[in-house]
Design goal:
65% of the residues lie in helices and 0% in strands. The chain is mostly helical and 260 residues long.
Length: 260
């Protein structure tokens, strides 16, 4: 499920995001004792507990003890609500990082905090990055990573490109973990059951597997598909290892770019 941000009325959405006074006041009609912040908090709670598929104005209203219609006095539609949810919750990802030891430790900490944020709120990964929300908290998170990268001495073009690469890397690998956690409940099949059934059939169906895919076979013989902790689902553990190894490789590349 992919949700595109910025689908509501542009002026109303931006006024709500930036908390312009006109947007804070409810439209004419009976007051319901609600507020934009209370509605957004309730919506985030639903998304955290049940995922984006469970989100509706009616569901949010029920959580607040109101009708869904009562919410429209404060938030025009679900589209604007998604924008507000995203920009509100992403404030958790903002930290100020000490550059005393250089840009690399700061960037490592930034990536780790962003990774943890995505795993706390996996529904955020369903909000497409094709069109940004353009809210203040989204910008403050961006501003901090730019501050770290500018401290490395990179030129503006490289800073922009590598910022995008870092965001997409962390987001992409976190999405694998989030989906791995949901897979058993969504499909009714646990990871072990799924893998054992298909690996046995693969051996049966592709008796010449090693000859057809020699590099995959080489990696398997070398223990490349063996993970350290068998108590963690395979895909989740593999993605976590990918995050740490891939981040180190990205930072190595940035160091070389800086030195060059």
């Amino acid at each position: 499920m992919v949700v595109f941000a910025g689908q509501g009325d542009a002026r109303r959405s931006m006024a709500l995001l930036w908390r312009q006074s006109a947007a804070e006041e409810p439209k004419p009609g009976p007051r319901q004792g609600l507020s934009v912040d209370a509605i957004v908090a309730a919506a985030i709670g639903i998304a955290d507990e049940y995922g984006m598929a469970a989100l509706s104005m009616r569901a949010v209203g029920e959580r607040l003890g109101r009708t869904g219609m009562a919410l429209y006095t404060y938030v025009p539609s679900k589209s604007e609500l998604v924008d507000l949810m995203y920009d509100t919750v992403i404030a958790e990802a903002h930290h100020t990082y000490d550059l005393a030891d250089g840009w690399r430790p700061a960037l490592t900490a930034w990536a780790g905090d962003l990774w943890a944020f995505y795993l706390r709120h996996p529904w955020v990964l369903q909000v497409s990055q094709a069109r940004p929300v353009l809210g203040p908290n989204e910008y403050v998170v961006l501003d901090e990573v730019l501050r770290i990268l500018f401290a490395s001495g990179l030129d503006p073009a490289a800073t922009r490109q590598l910022t995008g690469a870092l965001f997409q890397f962390v987001r992409g690998v976190a999405q694998v973990v989030a989906e791995a956690r949901d897979a058993a409940a969504a499909t009714g099949t646990g990871d072990d059951e799924w893998w054992y059934a298909r690996s046995a059939l693969l051996e049966e169906m592709a008796t010449d597997f090693d000859e057809r895919f020699p590099m995959v076979a080489r990696l398997a013989r070398a223990g490349g598909f063996t993970l350290a902790d068998e108590t963690v689902p395979y895909q989740e553990q593999a993605a976590t290892e990918t995050f740490h190894t891939g981040l180190a490789a990205l930072l190595d590349g940035i160091e070389k770019r800086v030195a060059g």
